[in-house]
Amino acid sequence: MIKLGIFGNPVEHSKSPLMQNSALQSLGIDGFYDKYLLLDGSQIKNEFLSLRLDGANITVPHKEDAYKNADEIRGIAQKIGAVNTYVKENDKVIAYNTDGLGFMMAIEEFGNIQNAIILGAGGTAKAIAVALKDANIEVTIINRSRKGRLEFFEELGCKCYTPEELSSLSTINYQLSTIIINTTSAGLKDDLLPMQKELLQSLMKNASFAFDCIYGKTTPFLALAKEMGLQYKDGKDMLLFQGVLALELFIKQPIPTSTIEQMDKCLK
Questions:
Q1: Does the pTM of the predicted model rise above 0.90?
Q2: From 35, 63, 126, 233, active-site residue
Q3: All structural domains of the chain
Q4: Residue 147 catalytic?
């Protein structure tokens, strides 16, 4: 039997168990996927091993701690510095990041994007920024503070600002193919916007698309995007595609389209 799970704080809202257990059943695999509230991210590797898990997903706010604690980092995660997937392999904890590619698959319907504004500077923001830069898309990061957060993005070649510095953004030539991405937790358990409303409106005036990594609800961020006339979507498809990629790592085989469709139904 394969034993899988997801670590996060909060984690009670996660639909990953529903999605992944449906996939395991569809594939005829004897296994179970559960969710685990983890308060201290520095203990993630110990918890993963003590629970005798074969694989796990990691959600906010533990992706960077998961990176630091893994025995080996593979693929694009080495560049990101944050991981969302653990796989046990020969008594070692191997870490991957499927967020970036999952995000890019989720926004394919938007078509050609030339500029991206990412709100937040955590592990999810890092994955998305790396994926966007690899696709030759200009990236701007806006985070509430600079201390200990923006160096990674500056080294990646992103423009970085705090909300207080947003007046400088008037010097950036936005195209209509700009996407604004919320990677913060604002709106997950509250009715907050990721930044002051007037500042966010000024950004949305020059954008065409909005994406919120939060899924399953119309957050204040997405409600404002709708009001401003942007094409928008929540993080459901990102959750789906990163979950498909993670499951392929867990079971070491490709996932057929019929199973992906079954996983998608669980997120409706």
A1: yes
A2: 63
A3: 2-97+237-265 (3.40.50.10860), 101-234 (3.40.50.720)
A4: no
